[in-house]
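To close the section, here is one more complete example, presented without commentary so you can practise reading it yourself. The ligand is flavin-adenine dinucleotide.
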Amino acid sequence: MPPERAPDVEANDRALRSTGRSSLRRKRERGSFDRTTAEEILDEGIVCHVGFSDGGNTFVVPMAYARIDDTLYLHGASANRTLRAVAAGAQICATVTLLDALVLARSAFHHSVNYRSVTLFGTGRRVTDPAEGLAASVALLEHIAPGRSRDARLPTPAELVATLIVAVRIDEGSVKIRTGDPIDDAEDLDLGIWAGIIPLETVAGRGQPAADLDGSVTLPPYAERPQRRR
Ligand SMILES: Cc1cc2nc3c(=O)[nH]c(=O)nc-3n(C[C@H](O)[C@H](O)[C@H](O)COP(=O)(O)OP(=O)(O)OC[C@H]3O[C@@H](n4cnc5c(N)ncnc54)[C@H](O)[C@@H]3O)c2cc1C
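Output:
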């Protein structure tokens, strides 16, 4: 029997598409197909794990990425196996995870993590239009450090040719989020064991100049001081 779709999800223009493989099953109440939430998670994340099959093997490869509207862009060397497989039409599953807290319950069984994650399914296409390639390169820079594309030397046509950029439409997928306290069994609440959450943050440190940097080049604002990424 095909898996049923979570009943509380209304399909609308702002919903991610859902099929059997992206239907929420366990802990459905933590999931959604809300595209805006998915975009917020994608924009806050840094690393995307790209899963695909190639030659009878399954791979999951961490990669940087950027989003422009409804498209996720990945890039790397033109010999990159992951990107070549995506460009050749492989079905991929791309997941971005934000870790928000460790959740310590009284019982071992109920320990957990607070997280926000998005899982996308689909196929990609090779970006061949130089204008789109340049826009993707700018987005990749901006995703890492907002403002960086104004400073960095942008890719030359030759460098764009040596770079494999793939575009994946943000279409089918799901969001899952856990927040809040541990959920202990009632009979464990009086055990006198500490329970709660340990918040986790991704924090950028102050930029450290490259050893070969000319000392007259000052630290740009986006590398100036520790700041939370979100
Ligand atoms: C945070 C992060 C961001 C990255 N961003 C990018 C990016 O934007 N673009 C890009 O091209 N690459 C990126 N990389 C490197 C990427 O993970 C791959 O190593 C690289 O893209 C080569 O991919 P491939 O498919 O050609 O691997 P292959 O060279 O074909 O991989 C061969 C084997 O090497 C091993 N391997 C490959 N990559 C890794 C890895 N990361 N960790 C452990 N083992 C590995 C695996 O066993 C794999 O089967 C990133 C890595 C990290 C950790």
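Once you have examined the tokens, check your reading against these statements. The first helix runs from residue 35 to 44. Residues 1-11 have pLDDT under 50 and may be disordered.
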